[in-house]
Amino acid sequence: MKLAGKLIAALLVALALGVGSAWWIVDGGLGRLGFGAAAQNGAWHTNLAIGSPAADPYTRAAVARQGLLALSKSETVYFTAFSDDSGAALKTNCAYVISGGKLPARWWSITAYGADHYLIPNRADKYSAAMNTVTWTNERFLFTVGPEEESESAQGDFVPTGYEGGSGASFSLTLRLYNPEPEVAAAPQNLTLPTITKERCR
Amino acid sequence: MKSWPFWIAGTLVLAVLFHISAILAYPYAVTGVLHSRVVESEGANKMIAGPRASAEARGVVRPSPDLLYAICAYDLTSGPVKFSAPVPDTYWSLSMFAANTDNFFTVNDTQAARDEVEVILVTEDQIVPDPKGIPIVVAPSAKGAALVRTLISSEDKLPALQEAVKAARCATM
């Protein structure tokens, strides 16, 4: 019947539009539309509503996709970067220098994740740099994130991004501030966070 | 009279409804899948210490390789659940998550009064007759997850920290 066909078509179009737009927002993550308590600080973004009963439905959905079992802001504040300081997307074929000083938390770490939000396989089983593992010089630290082949010439400690040829894949970095000082949640956009500088690409 | 404007309007209204339903249902779906996966492999109300996160870890997104985790899929439908865990000499926390991803309770090593933390988790209408001074926490949903996090402060301490994480318990009272 013609009417039944039209109804089914309308239903399918509505389903594709509705669910598709929902997935676009959720997969794009906590920064895409700046919902709720989103904050930007250079290349880093965070959302202070993570884990909170005050979180809006979009924040909860994004947490379920990208940060399931994430702690609320009093315990840990998570900053994520999908791009470098110039705004270019982080790619596994490029080497980046991450540099900074003391951060207002009891402990911190910076971890690299693949586009699938899991740790990136590499020969050294090295996935992160942390307050207690980086090399400190005059209260400053510096390490390189990039293709394994760059590790020889890289500055400081090295976190590989599992480059497999071609133009590379996108990846992201998460900065975890455990037991953050009150200033972190009060004004996340004003903190001096580590810089992410692109060095070179393969 | 032309009917196509009504078809377009109807389709858009339906699309908005699908969008809202998908956004609202998604967190429950993801936590539900995690919960049933843990229950299927190890059972509910059991604390399971995981291996140190590596690229092989595909259970929960964005794990930290610098922490040791233990997870308990709690289920309060057959009564309150008691948690107990030794507190090591490094960053440590026990946190609880509701079915909608809300982190409704966390206690960390600096807040722990002793070198062991005990907590009883209940639903709104459950009563613990004799809690023996153990703090009671009300869960917003009968099912959810509890997570123990322990910072690997140094590689030398890893074996001892792994023992401490394995000693964490979650059990129906």
Radius of gyration of chain A: 19 Å
Q: What is the assigned CATH homologous superfamily of chain A?
A: Domain of unknown function DUF1214, C-terminal domain
CATH topology of chain B: Immunoglobulin-like
Low-pLDDT ranges of chain A: none
Strand content of chain A: 25-35%
User: Can you list the strand order of the major beta sheet of chain B?
Assistant: 1-2-8-4-5
Category from helices, strands and their pairing of chain A: alpha+beta
Number of domains of chain A: 1
List the uncertain runs of chain B. Answer: none
CATH class category label of chain B: Mainly Beta
Share of β-strand residues of chain B:
25-35%
List key phrases describing it.
A: 202 residues; Jelly Rolls; 6-stranded antiparallel sheet; 5-stranded mixed sheet; 11 strands; B: 173 residues; Immunoglobulin-like; 4-stranded mixed sheet; 2 helices; globular
What does this structure look like?
The complex is a heterodimer of chains A (202) and B (173). Chain A is α+β, with helices and mostly antiparallel strands. Chain A has a single domain (2-201), classed as Domain of unknown function DUF1214, C-terminal domain (Jelly Rolls). Helix content of chain A is 21%, strand content 32%. In chain A, the strands form two sheets. Chain A has a six-stranded antiparallel sheet. In chain A, strand 7 (136-137) and strand 8 form a beta hairpin. Chain B has 173 residues and is of the alpha+beta class. Chain B has one domain: Sandwich (Immunoglobulin-like). Chain B has helices at residues 4-42, 158-166; strands at residues 48-49, 67-75, 81-86, 92-97, 103-108, 116-122, 136-138, 143-151, 169-172. Chain B has a five-stranded antiparallel sheet. A four-stranded mixed sheet of chain B has the order 7-6-3-9. In chain B, strand 4 and strand 5 (103-108) form a beta hairpin. The longest helix of chain B is centred in the N-terminal third of the chain and has 39 residues, at 4-42. The radius of gyration of chain B is 20 Å and the shape is globular. The termini of chain B are far apart. The mean pLDDT of chain B is 92. Classes of the chains: A alpha+beta (202), B alpha+beta (173). Chains A and B meet through helix 1, helix 2, strand 5 and strand 10 of A and helix 1, strand 4, strand 5 and strand 8 of B.
